[in-house]
Design brief:
By secondary structure, this protein is mostly helical. It has helices at residues 2-110, 114-130. The protein has one domain (2-130). The mean pLDDT is 88.
Length: 131
């Protein structure tokens, strides 16, 4: 009977040890799950921050690109305006030169005779006296 009691005590101790081991295992699993959950939260936080940072960087890049685009567009407009003004000035100069050349040729043709020259000079003098 002593052996049976010892055997029962041994089985009872083994059951208690198994129960204790199961409780410790459940506790470890709960701790493990908490660690996994914390790691997931940290991962999610890091990813969220990374997304925010990426969006901020993209926004800054877009803004810089837009500023550069507008600067280049303004420079192009200014260059076009300068070229336009230069072309108009060149055209006016050319027209003036052609007008002077034509007037000179007409005057030479008209003034080819001395009588015509004297008549024209008197006409100019009369116009000056009237004004």
């Amino acid at each position: 009977m002593k052996m049976i009691k010892e055997r029962e005590a041994s089985i009872d101790d083994a059951l208690k040890a198994a129960n204790k081991a199961r409780q410790e295992m459940e506790s470890l699993q709960a701790d493990h799950q908490k660690l996994i959950d914390q790691a997931k939260e940290e991962r999610d936080g890091i990813l969220k921050e990374a997304r925010k940072l990426r969006e901020k960087m993209l926004d800054e890049s877009r803004e810089k690109a837009l500023i550069e685009y507008n600067r280049m567009l303004d420079q192009a407009r200014e260059a076009i305006e300068n070229e336009k003004k230069a072309a108009i000035t060149d055209l006016r100069n050319e027209v003036a030169t052609l007008s002077i050349d034509i007037a000179e040729k007409l005057m030479r043709h008209k003034m080819s005779e001395a009588e015509k020259q004297d008549s024209y000079v008197r006409k100019l003098i009369d116009e000056v006296k009237i004004n």
